[in-house]
Amino acid sequence: MKKVTLYIFSLILLLGATSCNDWLTREPKDTMNDEQVFSSETTINSYLAGLYQRLPDAGCFATDFQTSFDEGMWGGNAMGTNTLVMSFDFMHYYDYNLIRDINYFIETLPKEVSSTVDQSHVDYYLAEARFIRAYVYFEMVKRMGGVPLIEKLYTYDSSMTVDDLVNFCEPRTSEAAMYDYIAKEMDAVMNVFDLGNAKVSTTRATKGACLAIKARAMLYAGSLAKYNSSSDTPVTLASGAVGIPASRANEYYQKCLDACEDLMELKVNGAPIYGLYQKSSDLTQNFVDLFLKKDDNPEIIFARDYSSEGNTHTWTSANIPYSQRSIATGGAEVNPGLNLVEAFEFIDNRDGKLKTRVNEDDANSDYVYYDNIGDIFNNKDPRMAATIMVPGSTFNSKQLDIQAGLAIWNESTGKYTLRVGDITASDASKNLYEGIQITGNDGPSSKDYYITHTGFYVRKFMEESTAAVGGSSTASWPRYRYAEVLLNAAEAAYELGLTDKVYDYFNQVRTRAGLNKIEAPTMEDIRHERQVEFAFESLRYFDVKRWRIADKLYDGLATTETATISSLFPYKVYRPGSEYHNKYIFVKSSKAPLFNAPRKFSVGNYYSAFTNDELTKNPKLEKNPYQN
Questions:
Q1: How far apart are CA 152 and CA 165, in angstroms?
Q2: How far apart are CA 326 and CA 466, in angstroms?
Q3: Which helix (H) or strand (E) holds 528?
Q4: Around Cβ 38, how many Cβ atoms within 10 Å?
């Protein structure tokens, strides 16, 4: 047997903590060679733990990715993503080292496994490895298009010629065949994970995770078949490595819907395994808790977990409001845009536009005056305040002090002068006017870093704990959750013309949010609901790609609202003797300060480019279209 060294990660408690089967939760502590890997359940679990840990997660608590589209802008030092013109290798993912290691496990386990390991357990471990492999191929195909589909190990040695090595190279499998493979693999392994009355894991393969991944993959395939074919510039290759025939769209939509409905029917002891998280009558707090509560949370299907045992992330400290940061630099890296804030509806009005002028179409009309700084957001979709911190929001039991400056009335001109202070100045008097604070301790700022430039801070995934503020967050990353299953089902049903099912599945999500039902949801309604429900969860990028609208939304033009990030700055009125004194007005800007250039997504960005090294190593690879 070939000798390799495997570094055994102490991740089994992380991966198997929700299983009541001890053979899934044994923890190794050693380093060993491949002859020992399959000698016990402990070492087998350890190998699988390493594979799970290497699974890719687009944008997982990555502030740069979350500020690359129309959800927000970069608030950290320098320009970050605020000058983003997407390169052709954007979101590139091509990991055949991981595929090789998975294939090694699948081929070697049955031959080398100890006789002390129960055969049903072996079958379970093999199914997990196939689940992981299909997951990885899905992550590749949705970025790269068709890729070589490798399911076996290749053996080579130093005596082989270049021609011999080229013979090992595989061409790209068609994009449609890749999606077919993902569905086939999930179908093949999902029933192995039926553990009867066992507690269902959210961190390793389950039947629910198989169905959720299949549903998303089939929805993506259906969308690509329909919308790429009907786009102004279809992106295809003659080989089929890019492009899915339009004739297959409904087939994929039906498979998506079937997978979603099968998942909805999963039960343990007669009770549904999965459902929407609905634990609090406070609908904003309920949506906050959805992403922070790990116990008794039926919404999470498959997640990347973090714990306080050295496995943490920095989302909270990276996005902490300016006045609450624990270090001199850092925080406020993700600045949600006014675009996203206004995408959230009002409970009594589906138009989410905030009213700042008596006549919004007339820049010279009078301002709308608000008694309290947060009143402008009254009756907004409760999910907004759970996703975005706005003026008037509270975090860590402290109300944010978001105030751009003072609006000082000038009697001679009959207009306001907008005065901005400097909260970073060593001379405190530079932030005072007539003894009154000018700019709030949380900004916004038009010049400083690590502070909001839009008037907003991110709230989703933010933890109110000393450890999290200090850089050790433990919130899980929700790879798949039940609300997506419902909206996937609604979208597939819409494409299939099943209006009753669209109404049911779509409105379950809205009802949980406290919004009125929509009698006949349109495709635009479904797309809008996905935008607000899944903000900062990395689904938006793949959604606008599969709908083939990304090049329209991010066209590089300053006049295109979705290509820029807008801002909302609140000012406190200084007008002694007037009824408006100490009230608040708001100023919108179509381009937030320090947002340098509109987003630019080209047709060539619908698929990521292969690197020169990848093309050299495999001469059978075709380049993706429109990338010259």
A1: 16
A2: 9
A3: helix 523-533
A4: 21
